[in-house]
Amino acid sequence: MNQSLIQHFEDYLRGQQLRLTDQRRLIINEFVRTQGHISAEELYRNIQKTTPSIGFATVYRTLKLLADAGLALGKNFGDGFVRFECCSLTVGHHDHLICNRCGKIIEFNNPTIEELQLAVAQEHGFIISDHSLDIHGVCQECTPGE
Amino acid sequence: MNQSLIQHFEDYLRGQQLRLTDQRRLIINEFVRTQGHISAEELYRNIQKTTPSIGFATVYRTLKLLADAGLALGKNFGDGFVRFECCSLTVGHHDHLICNRCGKIIEFNNPTIEELQLAVAQEHGFIISDHSLDIHGVCQECTPGE
DNA sequence: CTACATGCAAAGTGTTTGCTAGAAA
DNA sequence: TTTCTAGCAAACACTTTGCATGTAG
User: Fold this and answer.
1) Whether residue A43 is found in the same domain as residue A75
2) Which residues of A touch B128 (CB under 8 A)?
3) For position B143, what pLDDT does the model report?
4) Residue B145 reports pLDDT greater than 70
5) What is the rounded distance in angstroms from the CA atom of residue A132 to the CA atom of residue A137?
6) At what angle do helices A56-68 and A2-15 cross, to 10 degrees?
7) Using one digit for the tens of pLDDT, what is the confidence trace for A62-83?
8) Pairwise CA distance, residues B134 & B114, whole Å
9) Is the model more confident about A106 or about A36?
10) Are residues B82 and B99 in the same domain?
11) Which pLDDT value is given to residue B36?
12) Helix-strand-coil split of chain B, %, nearest 5
């Protein structure tokens, strides 16, 4: 899975006459390892632990590159910065459950909701290009009672 | 409707030993007039047309005040800044259709979707505090074909 | 009169960009 | 050896804050 993603990235770079550098390899590996939903800042700090020489800008630029390659997708979950999700890990569209306590993000997919969204859009004469459903709350592990 | 909102705001201010100033009155009136989904910057520029002496900071601070009073809710629609919606204008929860072309934001409410969200959350042991569904696309007026 | 509010400008965020040395192909 | 990339710092855009003056209560 990781392999195919990295392969895809290499192909993309080659196709654009871009270069696969150590830094880019590091960044994409860490990105995949954490399974996405990570911010540029977090990714930067994680990589810095083992490779302090890395710079912000490289992380930001590589994330942009991943997004351009269709491998990452930036999304604002309301905590002040963009989090990137790993597109090739989950097939198709998905929505999010976000824990207010621990920050965990769970993906889910409910075809019925998707259909209803389409219906609502049609009612209003909208042509959907994209949609996002975020459910904020408290996850099982963070629930005080149980 | 406007009246009750402004009344609510006055009550809130009094309760907090805060003051109802001309600026605050102007800001909340303009906010209500535009029916929300407005950014601080837009609100600031609108008010500046008639009252150039107004400052950014006052607009930002007043919006924060409105949010604290439960009358406004900041939300990021992905265009780089926070837009505030007018809480008392629409009763209950609602979701959004956002036009990629003209930026128009249409509110809607689909009880079935709401129920399904609740079900999904329960499946994952989540206790919902809030949720937001944004459908991006092209609205009827901006559709090229028809 | 006594807080609180205003407007200004300065500081803070997260993110992007320009530049020059350096490395991939 | 040519072109793209890295790291740094400066620039950016939106938002928040500190301060002295002004004003509601």
Assistant:
1) yes
2) 135-137
3) 86
4) no
5) 16
6) 90
7) 999 999 999 999 999 988 999 9
8) 13
9) A106
10) no
11) 83
12) 45, 25, 30
Which residues in A lie closer than 8 A to residue B116 (C-beta atoms)?
110, 112-113, 116
User: In this structure, are A107 and A126 located in the same domain?
Assistant: yes
User: Cα separation of A72 and A70, whole Å?
Assistant: 6
A19-33, A64-78, B35-49, B84-98: range with lowest mean pLDDT:
B84-98
Residue B126 token pair: 């989540």
Domain boundary among A86, A116, A133: A86
The pLDDT of residue B5 is 82
pLDDT, residue A142, reads 94
Test the B interface: residue of A131, A132, A138, A143 with most B CBs within 10 Å: A131
How far CA B138 is from CA of A125, B101, B143, in Å, comes to 8, 6, 6
pTM tops 0.85 = yes
Q: Are residues A7 and A79 in the same domain?
A: yes
* CA-closest candidate to residue A117, choices B2, B56, B144, B133: B133
What pLDDT was estimated at residue B41?
97
- Chain A's closest residue to B82, CA to CA, is A78
Place of tokens 């904020």: A136
Give yes or no for a contact between A82 and A41, defined as CB atoms under 8 angstroms apart.
Answer: no
Provide the residue range defining the domain that includes B110: 95-142
* Same domain flag for A23 and A48: yes
| CATH (domain of A102) | 3.30.1490.190
